[in-house]
Specification:
The complex is a heterodimer. By secondary structure, chain A is mostly helical. Chain A is built from 4 helices and no strands. Chain A is extended, with a radius of gyration of 21 Å. Chain B has 5 helices and no strands. Classes of the chains: A mainly alpha, B mainly alpha. At the A-B interface, helix 1, helix 2, helix 3 and helix 4 of A face helix 2, helix 3, helix 4 and helix 5 of B.
Chain lengths: 128, 126
């Protein structure tokens, strides 16, 4: 049977403006996938340390290029965002925090907290 | 005529797999990863900036070794569990779904083993 392509369809994601909470929700998933891929870099780095001083120095030179540093800090931000939104998921798991105002309030909190933690990590890394 | 009762139709449908344990392990690893994130950031800070001996000395101290090994176990498990949910949501065909989930599981298992072996090699150096 031929499919009727003229049938009315419900509004799809492409023409639906996500609320802030919805955007954060999909970002949680995107950062989760990104961070999973990023784990490959952790394996490479820890293996470089195990390889000895020469491999270690080579890895440090490669990683000191500024575009790589930028990507690195984007990953740190992604980690903190995923962590903060993850904490909210743990709060939701207790059955709390589902009121609309609370949801929007927590959305702001977690954005501020993830930025603050990234700045704190930046200070921690460059002061020690 | 349909002689099957509503309960008869419903039985055996749905997931009936390991959903609850998946959900719990996702949460337990998540909670474990919150404090362990501190160690992994410290590890990155050292490996990207510090002299070789300093990184080795830090990593072979027992508490730091423990934290990094615990982080590796928790994070690769947490990632594999999370990616499984993503695959289940977006891959509709049953065969492709099962193959991608197990491919991801195996890749993350090998990555976790590679990371652990590297950590143990570092302990042997130090």
């Amino acid at each position: 049977m031929a499919t009727n392509t003229d049938r009315p369809i419900s509004p799809h994601l492409q023409n639906y403006k996500l609320p802030l909470t919805g955007t954060l929700s999909i970002c949680h998933r995107i950062t989760g996938v990104m961070l999973s891929v990023g784990l490959i870099f952790f394996v490479c780095m820890v293996s470089a340390v195990a390889e000895g001083a020469d491999a270690y120095a080579g890895m440090q030179t490669l990683m000191s290029a500024w575009p790589i540093k930028l990507i690195y800090w984007a990953f740190i931000y992604a980690l903190f965002f995923h962590l903060c939104h993850g904490v909210r998921h743990l709060i939701w798991d207790t059955g709390q925090g589902f009121a609309r105002e609370t949801m929007n309030q927590y959305a702001i909190y977690e954005l501020v907290a993830s930025l603050a933690l990234t700045v704190a990590a930046f200070i921690f890394v460059y002061s020690s | 005529m349909d002689y099957r009762s509503p309960i008869g139709k419903a039985l055996g449908l749905g997931s009936a797999k390991a959903g609850t344990s998946h959900w719990w392990m996702q949460r337990i690893t998540a909670v474990a990863l919150i404090p362990l994130s501190f160690w992994v950031i410290k590890f990155f800070a050292l490996t990207l900036n510090a002299p070789y001996q300093q990184t080795i000395a830090w990593l072979i101290s027992p508490v730091n070794t423990l934290a990094i090994v615990a982080w590796v176990l928790a994070v690769f498990y947490h990632s594999a569990l999370g990616l499984q949910v993503v695959i289940e949501d977006y891959v509709a065909a049953e065969g492709a779904k099962i193959i991608s989930i197990w491919a991801v599981n195996l890749v993350f298992l090998f990555l976790a083993l590679a990371a652990l072996i590297a950590v143990f090699r570092i302990i042997l150096i130090g």
